[in-house]
Amino acid sequence: MGAPCPPRRRGARGRRRPTLCSSNEETSHDQESEKVNQTPTATVDPTSIARIDHDEAMQITAIENRKFAELMESLSPTQWSTPTECTLWDVRAMAAHLVGSAASQASPREFFRQKRGGKPICKELGSPFWWDGMNELQVRERASATTEQLISEWTTVSAKALKSRTKMPRPIAGLKLLNLPEPVGRQPLSYLFDIGFTRDVWAHRIDIAHAIAVEPDHDAAHDGRILADIIAEWAATHGEPFTLVLDGPAGGTFVHGIGGEEVHIGVVDFVRTLAERTTASGVLRHTLPL
Nearest CA to 1 among 195, 211, 137, 207? Predict the structure, then answer.
């Protein structure tokens, strides 16, 4: 799991999880729903991509926090109430989750308070995963907050979370305490606290843009870097050869191995597929929690 998210299906290796964040839509490999110019033309081998380390992750997080704040500030009252593909959440609830998640990252005490408080909610949801209860607790505790209050809290707690994550001692970050579903498996705390929580914000920013039918604010330097890191991990988890052509300024062409399936898809639809917002066949049947 790249970061705490609502319950999702795990379909890459025949496993299933309870899902609140999915649809029955099938993604075509030739889908061209994302018409964006300036797609990078260089071909990249995912095995050659340098993974995002702690210092770079903190720089990326600062930019992503700003981009999410700008997205929230741009939303109209109608857009705040728009349903998302996470079927229990509208845009407002998704934002409330991210605000609450940032609060948990800012304080170990708050993290464990939310974890304890989410246990009975896990039972209510029928989920075995502790983060599902935390996610829903974050939303419920902000049910009466105005959108202005959510934006204000995000500004405060995201900065505190970044500071806390930046200062996390490396020996603690290296502890393999996370037992996550396949294909991720057992991971150190740094898997979440370096880039995983930032991926969560990034993926939900795409969710919100998709829900309100606007193009996400994507660029090659920031969003392309997050995406490349995701592709490097994704390719390593399943090992199948592929040629992946992603449309858009954050996209590009990625070739893994020889003689693999060729997939041409927009960045948004690729991320939606990996995150199990929609389903696909072929190499895209392999998913990755974001």
Answer: 195
Q: In what order do the strands lie in the sheet with 43-44?
A: 43-44, 252-256, 242-247, 261-266
Residue 150 contacts residue 96 (beta carbons within 8 Å): yes
Whole-model pTM: value is 0.87
Q: What is the pLDDT of residues 22-37, one digit of tens each?
A: 343 444 434 333 333 4
Q: Residue 130's closest CA among 114, 110, 106? A: 114
Each domain of the chain, given as residue ranges in start order, spans 43-285
Q: Which of 9-13, 117-121, 183-187 has the lowest mean pLDDT?
A: 9-13
CA atoms of 71 and 66, how far apart (whole Å): 9
Domain 43-285 class, CATH top level:
mainly alpha
Q: Record the tokens describing residue 64, joined without a space.
A: 């992503």
What single-letter amino acid sits at 148? E
Instruction: Locate all alpha helices (DSSP H) within the chain, ordered by sequence.
Output: 54-74, 77-80, 91-106, 108-125, 130-140, 147-167, 170-173, 190, 197-211, 223-238, 267-274
SS3 76: coil
